[in-house]
Amino acid sequence: SSNALSQSTQYAFQATSNVNNNQTIGPGTRLAFNVVEFDTEGGYSPGSYLYTVPAGAGGIWTFGFKAFINTTPTSFRLGIYKNGALIGMGGYSSDTTETFDVVCQADPGNYFMIQGVSGGASVYMSPNHSWFYGYRLEAVNNSVGITTDLTVADLNATDIGAVLVAAADVIASTATAGTTNTSTLNASTVNGDI
Questions:
Q1: 96 phi-psi bin (left φ>0, alpha ψ -120 to 50, beta other)
Q2: DSSP per residue over 35-48, as a string?
Q3: Could you tell me whether strands 59-66 and 131-139 are parallel, antiparallel, or unpaired per DSSP bridges?
């Protein structure tokens, strides 16, 4: 479908933690995701544990986390927050709280974080136990049109009667009937529109 959505690598991040120990989480405590594993646009702050949507990256996003609950709480909830407001939270105990995600509208400048909603527990913060991630959903594009930007390392043309290259002047190459003309266009030979 031309309106389908797919996961994006154009705008994506994942952060984890090098605390390598339990972090006590209560209401309003942000999880200490202080190590950036990858961040395509530099929107994640490991000092404040926030992801801020960069300019030009607004749209529909998925945000989620994995939190290794290392105690048996009687009542404990974690949540995903947008601009300081709760937009999704886990369940009553660790087996329904450890991992989930939300899909939401995110505009440039919106910020997201993971923090305690209610109750208290210990969360083990290390790369193999807990992480926070997000990515923008992209419309699937399976077609190339007149306005599509393409990047090509080398463009080879075989059996072409004429190859036009715009540089300072337009240069035309004409093949003799019955012969093969092979031309290679690359960054050093193309300096304009073709």
A1: alpha
A2: EEEEESSS-EETTT
A3: antiparallel
Nearest CA to 18 among 131, 112, 134?
Answer: 131
Q: State the pLDDT confidence band at 166, using cuts at 50, 70 and 90.
A: very low
Q: How many CB atoms lie within 10 A of CB 132?
A: 26
Q: What is the helix (H) or strand (E) element at residue 97, kind and residue range? A: helix 94-97
CA 171 to chain centroid: 42
Three-class DSSP category at 73:
coil
Of the candidates 18, 25, 36, 14, the one whose C-alpha atom is nearest the C-alpha of residue 123 is 25
**Could you give phi then psi for residue 144, rounded to 5 degrees?**
-115, 125
Among residues 95, 61, 58, 59, the alpha carbon closest in space to that of 80 is found at: 61
> What does the alpha-carbon distance between residue 45 and residue 34 come to, in Å, rounded to a whole number?
8
Question: Which residues make Cβ contacts (< 8 Å) with residue 168, sequence separation at least 6?
Answer: 191
Q: How confident is the model at residue 10 (pLDDT cuts 50, 70, 90)?
A: confident
The pTM is what? 0.69
